[in-house]
Design a protein that fits this description.
Elements: H1 3-13, E1 24-30, E2 34-42, E3 50-59, E4 70-74, E5 78-84, E6 87-95, E7 102-114, E8 117-132, E9 141-154
Antiparallel strand pairs: 1-2, 1-9, 2-3, 3-4, 5-6, 6-7, 7-8, 8-9
Length: about 160
């Protein structure tokens, strides 16, 4: 196990021991539909919480709402972050709130560490963009549903 992976594992498992330094996570994907990059750091205080979460998602397609064409990802959009041993998962969500039609952006990232390099995580992302009449909770019209490879690294 690499030194970085040991440090990150110790930071994640230690609930009362403050971490001396924060490690960073970087994720990227590029294919015919999406180009994205995400980065975040672990909180120096507890070593568990992700801080300074940010990223960009450029989505190609005529059917994609303009609001999601070139989307800046922010910490407010990060709904779940989970790292346990050799797994890293992120859930990002945003919507158009009061606009009509009501539109949603959901990004799920699921990765596992690579045996040869414990600081690298390979996996898949699923991106779903939907429309709905604001007055109805369901059904949502799926505008884009896309799944492709992604990688993440601890730096």
């Amino acid at each position: 196990m690499s030194r970085k992976a040991i440090i990150v594992a110790a930071m994640l498992s230690a609930s009362t021991v403050p971490a001396d330094a924060a490690a960073r996570i970087y994720c990227a994907a590029s294919d015919q539909a999406v180009k994205m990059s995400i980065e975040s750091g672990f909180a120096a205080r507890d070593g568990k919480r992700l801080v300074h979460f940010r990223g960009m998602a450029d989505i190609v397609g005529d059917e994609v709402p303009a609001v999601f064409d070139n989307l800046k990802l922010t910490a407010a959009m990060l709904k779940q972050a989970w790292m346990d041993g050799d797994e890293l998962r992120l859930q990002v969500y945003t919507d158009t709130r009061d606009a009509r039609p009501f539109q949603t952006f959901e990004l799920s990232i699921t990765t596992k560490s690579v045996a040869k390099d414990r600081d690298r995580f390979d996996g898949r992302y699923v991106l779903t963009i939907s429309n709905a009449d604001k007055r109805k909770k369901a059904p949502h019209e799926v505008i884009l549903s896309h799944e492709a490879p992604i990688f993440c690294e601890i730096k």
